[in-house]
Amino acid sequence: MSNIMAYIIGLVILYIVGMILVIPIRILTKLLINGLIGGLVLFLFNLFGGLVGLSIVINPLNAIIVGILGVPGVVLLLILQALL
């Protein structure tokens, strides 16, 4: 009986440790995907914004900002570029 309880407790601990490790990986994966989408949005914005004289430098920080915030992120970067 003690062996069975030890196995059950071991499985519960393994499950908890697995969940602790999986949650940050999901967050990092979502951040990476959003960053790639943000980079694509910045590329398209520079492609079409270049026709009217607007451009934003594509770097990892800008891609993550646009990936997380979406269109408001592009507006934020344009405002920051105008102010600085």
In summary, what is this structure?
Helices cover 85% and strands 0% of the residues. The protein has three helices and no strands.
Describe this structure in words.
The chain is mostly helical and 84 residues long. The chain has one domain (2-83). The protein has helices at 2-49, 60-69, 71-83. Helix 2 (60-69) packs across helix 3. It starts with a helix and ends with a helix. The model has no long low-confidence stretch (mean pLDDT 85).
Secondary-structure blueprint:
Blueprint: H1 2-49, H2 60-69, H3 71-83
Helix pairs in contact: 1-2, 2-3
Secondary-structure content class: mainly alpha
What separation lies between the terminal Cα atoms? 70 Å
Total beta strand runs: 0
Number of helices: 3
Which consecutive residue ranges, at least 5 long each, have pLDDT under 50?
A: none
Q: What is the count of distinct domains?
A: 1
Strand content: under 5%
Secondary-structure element pattern, one letter each: HHH
What's the rounded overall pLDDT mean? 85
Q: Tell me the overall shape.
A: rod-shaped
Radius of gyration based on Cα positions: 22 Å
Taking the sheet with the most strands, its summary is: none
- How much helicity do the residues have? over 70%
